Write a sequence for this structure.
């Protein structure tokens, strides 16, 4: 019972204190004595609020910056991808233009020999591999039996430059012996002097015009072409030009070194001649 009285007395004292303190604050405020404390309190509250606002703004700025960086990274990645796509398309267009130029060059040659009675059908193909041995060189092309290719067919580069003939045929590809192979032998003729001979491979290093009768006339710089005596090899295919003439009065035949018009190591596309 006494404890309850003590507790009620304490509550009353606290209540009276709060009432008196409130009346005192009201009185002091009415006479202006609380202006400085109020201003200081408001200043402290505003400072704390501004600090929180600045921190919040800085945090938002960081988030915005990170968001912009991610966006820029994505845009940069998209630009790189677009740039690669453009480069790929330009590369394809360049290759297409190159092939079209080769086709136009070969078409011009085909029309010219056709007007001379040597009409052939020309199928464009690609070199897929190259082979070398001690006696010369050969290539593999992506045309075979499915394209009606047969052994002995001539293989040319754009413009009617003979580079070899088919020696083995498979379903999807064929092996071609180059004219520089030592086993290669093709009937040829000097265009201006009409001297007949045989183009023989020189162990992969070049070709020679051989088996020319001593009485035949040869001229340095004269164009050498196929004579048309070989089956499946059109007349008029270009082999090269005479660079050096080799003759001796003690020999039955004379010969000549031939400069080719094309580097056989850098050919990519070829044409097969079919009647």
């Amino acid at each position: 019972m006494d404890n309850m009285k003590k507790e009620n007395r304490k509550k009353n004292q606290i209540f009276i204190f709060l009432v008196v303190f409130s009346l005192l604050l009201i009185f002091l405020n009415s006479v202006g004595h609380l202006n400085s404390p109020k201003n200081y309190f408001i200043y402290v509250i505003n400072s704390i609020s501004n600090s929180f606002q600045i921190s919040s703004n800085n945090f938002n700025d960081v988030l915005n910056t990170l968001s912009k960086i991610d966006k820029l990274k994505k845009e940069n990645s998209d630009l790189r991808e677009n740039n690669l796509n453009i480069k790929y398309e330009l590369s394809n267009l360049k290759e297409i233009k190159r092939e079209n130029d080769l086709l136009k060059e070969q078409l011009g040659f085909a029309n010219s020999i056709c007007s001379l009675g040597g009409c052939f059908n020309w199928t464009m193909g690609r070199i897929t591999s190259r082979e070398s041995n001690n006696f010369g060189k050969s290539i593999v092309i992506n045309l075979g039996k499915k394209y009606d290719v047969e052994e002995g067919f001539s293989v040319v580069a754009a413009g009617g430059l003979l580079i070899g003939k088919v020696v083995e045929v498979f379903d999807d590809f064929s092996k071609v012996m180059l004219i520089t192979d030592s086993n290669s032998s093709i009937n040829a003729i000097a265009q201006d002097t009409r001297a007949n001979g045989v183009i023989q491979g020189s162990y992969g290093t070049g070709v020679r015009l051989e088996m020319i009768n001593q009485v035949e006339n040869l001229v340095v710089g004269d164009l050498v072409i196929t004579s048309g005596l070989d089956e499946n090899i059109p007349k008029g295919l270009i082999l090269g030009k005479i660079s050096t003439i080799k003759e001796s009065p003690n020999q039955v035949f004379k010969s000549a070194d031939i400069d080719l018009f094309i580097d056989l190591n850098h050919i990519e596309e070829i044409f097969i001649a079919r009647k």
In short: The mean pLDDT is 78. Residues 35-114 form the longest helix (80 residues).
